[in-house]
Amino acid sequence: MGDRTAFRTCPLCEALCGLELTLDEAGTVKRVRGDEKDPFSKGFICPKGATLGSLDGDPDRLAEPLVAGETAGWDEAFEAVRRGLSEVVARHGRDAVAVYIGNPTAHSIAGPLYGSAVVKALGTRNLYTASTADQMPKHVACGHMFGDPLAIPVPDLDRTGHLLMLGANPLESNGSLASAPDFPGRLKAIRARGGKITVVDPRRTRTAALADEHVFIRPGTDAFFLMALVHTLFAEDLVKTAEHLAGRVNGLDDLRALAVDFAPEDVADATGVPAAVIRRTARELAAADRAAVYGRIGTCTQAYGTLNSWLVDVLNVLTGNLDRPGGAMFPRPAHAPVYRRKKPFTTARWRSRVRGLPEVNGELPVATLADEIETPGEGQVRALITIGGNPALSAPNAARLDRALAGLEFMVSIDPYLNETTRHAHVVLPPPRPAQTPHYDIALTGLAVRDYARYSPPVVPLPDGRPSEAELLARLAVAASGTDGDPALLDEMIIKSTLAKAVAIPGSPVHGREPDELRKMLDTGTLTEQRLDMMLRLGPYGDGFGAEPAGLTLTRLRTEHPHGLDLGALKPRLDEVLCTTSGRIELCPSTCAADVDRLRSALRDPGASGGTVLIGRRHLRSNNSWLHNVPELVRGSNTCTLQLNPADAERIGVAAGDTVRVTSRAGAVEAVAEPTDTIMAGVVSLPHGWGHDRPGTRTRVASRHAGVNVNAVTDEQEIDPLSGNAVLNGVPVTLEAAR
Fold first, then answer.
1. pTM higher than 0.90 for the full model?
2. At 340, is the pLDDT very low, low, confident or very high (cuts 50, 70, 90)?
3. Structural domains in the chain?
4. d(Cα 633, Cα 125) in Å, to the nearest integer?
């Protein structure tokens, strides 16, 4: 038969790039190139995507379940899961079982469709995810402003003329909360058409080097800078009353009053940004014909994460650029129903047992998971399910959590590797290889800078008896419920209930029709594909089960658009997404306004801007902790070094290659010094995701390139109070030469 070619979406980051795979007769991926026919990525590929074949064929990937460290059959493994969870629930109650869902689940079709079913089957309030070590502040800010925590505006990169970026390094990360293949090319295009890019960052990153202007800022002070921009817009009468936002905004006067105390001159010392630069930045933003402000993980993972996320979109509103071409706009994903009914956004429906931290989006902060495991008493976490996550490396004060995991009565993990977290698991359930897995970006197309859809069927069949990723999660949900029922009944229940709701809602394309009739019209593929087909048909571009004959179905997407379907540039849709109680944008939510008092108090603290602080770092050849076992990705610039300013290196008496001891309240690490003038004095940087030196793992390449874990010195006691997000940037540390 010879080699064959297959096409799919890359599942390794948020960029949604199309890939062209060359496979041999055995199904081995021999070559990976960019899919030139993909209308969104147009052939772009990064080093991570190019190594998908190595990841797919990694000999360290688990092929069979592990029970107590030994290879087992699937039925035996799921029976061990059912028995282990049932025993803990019987003795200690449902909240004694916690669930942790990691970042990779957002890069799949199965994770978003089935992850919540596992939590519901358990009936636990102890849900933790990577969101509270990442983007939760953005969800909270958008929930308060727009009523929907998933209504996140993204910069309209392809039409903007002025982009202000904070805490973002898309030339290394490929973009985040703004899915954009070839983010570098899109940035270059802004400059080519006469626009301007300004990057605000404590490091002169590759993104900052590409920009027209780079502004150094002291870590953790973005909220002061952003509030000073707001102050300047009001003080200099630069606020634009955009016609499309007229009568749609509450809180303008309240916001004006809040900003009075944050003049550029008042925040200059704290931020390290001269007042003149702040004023010019505000004026340029206001004067631009089309502009967008974009803040990412560096603005979220700090003490004022929610204030930062709120102020980013406050600026988009005040300059008239929200929901406007070239500004910050709301994507319209093909699978999202147009008839959704949404309740007003609220938080703190329950609180964590030990520290009393509020629930947000149905979950608790990962920063308190170790507390819940270690602290005796009613409701103590005794068992844990992890799905595609490695919190023993990625959580703040990860060393403490790692120790806590060892004391659990029972733990089950869905993961392809025996890594730093799953080495503690009593049962490990490995998902199939990427080539054996279907792909549709449920989470990420809702953040894309163009409306786009693509379905990638598996390119290699599963071996007989090998469950798919969706079947793994469905069986886990059944086992978590304490029964041994048919996992297919879960999908049938979801399909039936979704169709019943759809036909009952006025305005739905299927209002008044019979659910059984619609059920028979669904795709003939797997139950997962049938659920996706249902979502596409009910979506904004769907066929409405025949109501719009030219509309989208999964069959049409799969057969007529195998390289993906471009659904056009982003369109104004504020009326569709806005669901606050008032029906207006809440420009000055009471929760954010109250937290400004904390910001104001910190500004008055003369010691707030002193001392050395630690920030993270992204690498183009890395993604958190889960790609370090690919040989091609742990070469070249992807190294775990401590970047520090030459003045700081001289102060502590170290040169390039020397070892530096970095100490915080939580712990200490020793790392190799890399002096560089690309980082501010008083700031040091370690990359995220390293520390592969634990016993009991089976990741040989990662173990040979262990590095040090930055989260050994991040502090689980420090969080953003509005979102519960971990503070991973601006961490106070001391430095000394290691002897």
1. yes
2. low
3. 1-57 (3.30.200.210), 145-334+581-597 (3.40.228.10), 497-563 (no CATH), 611-737 (2.40.40.20)
4. 38
